[in-house]
Amino acid sequence: MNITFYKYNGAGNDFVMLDNREEWFDWDNKEIIAHLCDRKFGVGADGIILLQNHPQHAFEMLYANSDGSRGSMCGNGGRCIVAFAQQLGIIKGGEMTEFMGPDGVHEGVLTGPGNVQLDMIDVKNIEEKNGLTFVHTGTPHHIQYVPNLLQFPIVKEAQKFRDRCGQEEGVNVNYVEQIDGQWHVRTYERGVEDETLACGTGATATALALAQQKGATSPVAIHMPGGVLTISFDYSPENGFTNVWLEGPATFVFEGNMEA
């Protein structure tokens, strides 16, 4: 099968994007998905995203991890699919769009060249389980504060925590340190089973945890290895975190074809 693909990245969190409005791609074939995402034998990506038609919204987003497993919401992928929809002519730049994501309906808008703002789900509670902090922002995340973040062995350490929150498929793990007054985060993602250069739902989860636990105020800039993501929100004790928006770069890299 000859596959036309588009490569995008959101602050270094990279994706293979497919225009599947005619439903030509076999979404159940994990081997093809893993092959496309393979960095030595395929295109190379943290995950694969399909843009499909939806009866009530501008389009639907389907997401799978690089190992072929079904993914939950991906914040950077959601921002990239908004930019992809503009490239396909589905929406215009500066136009707010509404689409169906893995965790429900999202709105997104291109706020400038290569920059996208995406609304995220409301978060009622930040959970504490067995002394650990968990935040569900469309994908479950564990937040941990550590010293010497830049040298911290996050892959080795995260594997101790990824399966400890009661989620059947585990959690993503975020390691956080304040360096020179800025919040820096490194993330281990389930399904990739490795560190990624950025994670949108992880940046969002961390920002909300920082607001509750460290007194951070909206907007919160999260510095990740691939770039800076900014999270804004409203908070009240009655409603938790609402009006949550994730903003950052969403960059088209290249278009290509390959046999799979």
In short:
The protein is an alpha+beta fold. It contains 4 helices and 17 strands.
Q: Kindly report the oligomeric state of this protein.
A: single chain
What is the end-to-end distance? 5 Å
Q: What does the main sheet amount to? A: 12 strands, mixed
Summarize the amount of helix as a percent range. 10-25%
CATH topology of the largest domain: Diaminopimelate Epimerase, Chain A, domain 1
Query: Which architecture name of the largest domain does CATH use?
Result: Roll
How do the helices and strands follow one another from N- to C-terminus?
Answer: EEHEEHEEEEEEHEEEHEEEE
CATH level 1 name of the largest domain? Alpha Beta
Q: Specify the overall morphology.
A: globular
How large is the count of helical segments?
A: 4
Q: Spans with pLDDT under 50 lasting ≥5 residues? A: none
Let me know the number of strands. 17
Structural class: alpha+beta
Mean pLDDT: 94
Q: Write down the domain tally.
A: 2
Query: Whole-number radius of gyration?
Result: 17 Å
Strand content: 35-45%
Supply the CATH superfamily name of the largest domain: Diaminopimelate Epimerase, Chain A, domain 1
